[in-house]
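Limitations

Structures in this collection are predictions, not experimental determinations, and the ligand pose is part of the prediction. Treat each record accordingly. The example that follows, with MTE as the small molecule, is included so readers can see exactly what is and is not provided: the inputs are given verbatim, and the output is the predicted complex.
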Amino acid sequence: DELGDKLTSCEDITNYNNFYEFSTEKEEVASLARNFRTSPWTVKVGGLVSKPGVFDLDDLLRKYPQEERIYRLRCVEGWSMVIPWLGFPLAALLKEVEPTSRAKYVRFESLYDPEQMSGQKTDLLDWPYVEGLRLDEAMHNLTILATGLYGKPLPPQDGAPIRLVVPWKYGFKNIKSIVKMDLVEEMPVSAWMAAAPDEYGFYANVNPDVPHPRWPQSSERRIGELARRKTLPFNGYAEEVAHLYSGMDLRKFF
Ligand code: MTE
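Predicted complex:
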């Protein structure tokens, strides 16, 4: 139970997906991603760190206890879900590689493999999919690397075998199928910022007061329900995260 909200069904979570590497049709992603190879899998962590490394997914699963985290996910398109993730805090992995004092941001990259992901043969985005977080956002306890949902390993369509979950930001920040993370000094340019800078910003904190050029943001449709519900500042996580942005102009947050 998340703020008393019911979990979205596993059926909906695994059949209504945004994963443009496979398709722009949400209902098509699951079948197109069915044979995606997720093992062996490594995540290369480098950049401004003292102890860079290439981490095998099985080692990460052994080393970090997998916790269940029930979070709301709010897509900028105006729909939302409540998802029981399995995963571990991103902070645990970041502490292990020891960011240097120059590191200010984390830059994430998804797999690039057009043979498996035919969407990458289009120029819809400048592949691979890239996202970023400020280091304090990345170190926040709510920020996890998810490796499963509903108690099972992540299905390919939800970003197997490892994806980012930052529940107070719009869904597009939650980059899937991560192969690389770099600690950097400059704010990374995400794939969506490069494609449509008027529509997608770096922070992308859920904010009902900042309209998007294409989709209203004051309310949302919970998948599985008919009536719309009010969208909450920071997707309902304001108490935990609003302090990260004190002094910043929240209206400029796309
Ligand atoms: N990550 C990659 N690599 N490619 C994508 O197209 N779509 C994003 C995000 N992560 C996307 C991605 C968007 S727009 C959303 S809303 C969420 O994934 C959807 O996650 P879900 O399908 O698990 O609900």
